[in-house]
Amino acid sequence: MTANGDDRQRILTGVRPTGALHLGHYAGALENWIRLQDEYDCHFLIADYQVSDHADDIDRVREAVIEVATDWLAVGLDPDRSHFVIESLIPEHAELTTLLSWFIGMGRLERNPTLKAEMDELEERGMSFEDTEREGKRQVVRERGAVPVAFFTYPIMQVANILMPRAHLVPVGEDQLPHIEMTRETARRFNRRFGEVFPEPRGLVGRVPRLVGTDGNAKMSKSVGNTIDLKDDAETVERKVMRMYTDPTRLRATDPGHVEGNPVFMYHDAFNPDTAEVDDLKERYREGRVGDVEVKRKLAAALNTFLDPIRERRSHYEANPAEVREALARGTEHARGVAQDTMADVRSALGLNYLDG
Ligand code: ATP
Ligand code: MG
Questions:
Q1: What pLDDT, on a 0 to 100 scale, did the predictor assign at position 283?
Q2: CB within 6 Å of ligand 1 — which residues?
Q3: Rama region for 212: left / alpha / beta (φ>0; ψ in -120 to 50; rest)
């Protein structure tokens, strides 16, 4: 039994408040979170310290904190069984990040493939700065040097997020696995030198490890704008699906088409429970006996059926935002207590408890 009276193993996982949640979050992560709520003591984190690439639009971040929590409630995460946590309201996260960064080499970050890909994308997209010397004019800078230091070091903060509640399991999408590997190494290294403080956490990847974007991009991602959001209405879903990237080699409905690697069929596989319909569409697509329009219409219908109950629950919380804030306040307060316990152990393990008798 732990100090907080819960003897289940713990989960820590989270989301950045950079926008509404989408189908990729659902199939890659949320589905596992919902399923594991009873079996584990779950901490779900809104990682608002980790939005350095959105720092010029903090109003949007503020909105997204509530939006993400509303999406969580809408998909069935339950704040009576789990803890909804806002990262920056627990400043111990910043402290543990500083202390752990003593033990993580630069090379470890430089070799992290997810970080590398995200930094490349950020550089391409450009960071916007206010150039004070030119009368406060906003400008976009596209170079490595413009990527915030905090972006380069965010995986260390993620290590701190996971180790803070001494989590055993981290259910995430595939892109997060390098960060979990770094967490395991850091826990091992820390424990070896300073005594057993942290469990070594395992990663758990969802049913669809990495859902492609509507544009055919390898990952559906809030920051890229290639998403179908859990809160999109039926018409929006229809419009996004009709514009989806499909088999580029196919010019006419009578051309034999490719099913493998085709995002429209990947979504059918992930979200259309009518496998007979999906198999029939695939067969006809391969033989050039069905057009993209029909395949897409059926996908939009399946997605809307899947999203309907989520939308219904969401509308309750949209009408009652005080319930959302209350869930966040309660979860954050609980997690702060847990964090303070961990930090007391960390400080004494490191010998920073100078004034203790
Ligand atoms: P951003 O573009 O702002 O980084 P994101 O869409 O990548 O946003 P995150 O908040 O970084 O979302 O990720 C939250 C969780 O959802 C992580 O566990 C991540 O692995 C998972 N996830 C996000 N996008 C996908 C996806 N397309 N497929 C599978 N899992 C995903
Ligand atoms: Mg991300």
A1: 98
A2: 15-16, 18, 24-25, 28-29, 172-173, 175-176, 208, 210-211, 219-223
A3: beta
Tell how far the Cα of 224 is from the centroid of ligand 1, in angstroms: 11
Task: Identify which of 11, 13, 16, 25 to mutate to test ligand 1's pocket (most ligand atoms within 8 A of the CB).
Answer: 25
- Nearest residue (CA) to ligand 1, atom 26: 24
User: In the numeric block, which tokens belong to residue 146?
Assistant: 């413009």
Chain-centroid distance of CA 220 in Å reads 11
> Which pTM does this prediction carry?
0.96
77: left (phi over 0), alpha (psi -120 to 50) or beta: beta
Task: Tell me the pLDDT tens digit for each residue of 83-94.
Answer: 999 999 999 999
pLDDT band at 133 (very low <50, low <70, confident <90, very high): confident
C-alpha of residue 301 to centroid of ligand 1, in Å: 24
* Mean residue pLDDT across the chain: 96
